[in-house]
Amino acid sequence: MDTAQSEAMRNRRKEPRYPVRKGVKALFGQREGLVLDVSKGGLGIHFEGDDLFPGTISTLDIEAARQEFFLGQVPVRNVTHCELEDEFLKGVPVAKRCGLVFGDLKPHQRFQLDYFIWLNTHGEG
User: Fold this and answer.
1) 44, 47, 78, 104: which sits with the fewest CB atoms below 10 Å from its CB?
2) Distances in whole angstroms, Cα of residue 86 to Cα of each of 19, 23, 96
């Protein structure tokens, strides 16, 4: 994703994104990725591998062991997908970055999401 595309995505978002502390996992099916950033409207994830990320995901789980946080069965939809290349491997895709938007969150999921954002912007852990 080039700088212009990145800027366009940032301007299209309704909610600000916040960086997430290292080690927060996105679990979807048999796959595991890392959460890069989060907002009240969605999140960015990163995962390695050569398989393609599905265009649509029904649910995923967010797990932050260090913060003793778990949010399960989060409805999401994939809105962006790009392959990241390792400059040392000269064009070989080694990772994916996906932008996901949340579906209809239940009230307890919305509360947990707000708490998770607070943990990663103000809290300890």
Assistant:
1) 104
2) 22, 21, 11
Would you write out the chain's pLDDT as a tens digit for each of its 125 residues?
Answer: 455 445 545 556 688 999 998 899 999 878 888 999 999 999 999 877 555 455 677 799 999 998 899 999 999 988 887 776 666 555 555 667 888 999 999 999 999 999 999 998 876 55
Residue type (1 letter), 117: I
| Chain mean position to CA 89 | 25
Judged on CB neighbours under 10 Å (0-12, 13-18, 19+), 122 is exposed
DSSP labels for 26-70? Answer: EEETTEEEEEEEE-SSEEEEEEESSSPPPS--SEEEEEEGGGTEE
**CATH class of domain segment(s) 3-121:** mainly beta
The pTM (predicted TM-score) of the whole model is: 0.77
51 and 30 in contact (C-beta within 8 Å)? no
If residue 80 lies in a helix (H) or strand (E), which one and from where to where?
strand 69-85
Residues 26 and 62 sit within 8 Å (Cβ to Cβ): yes
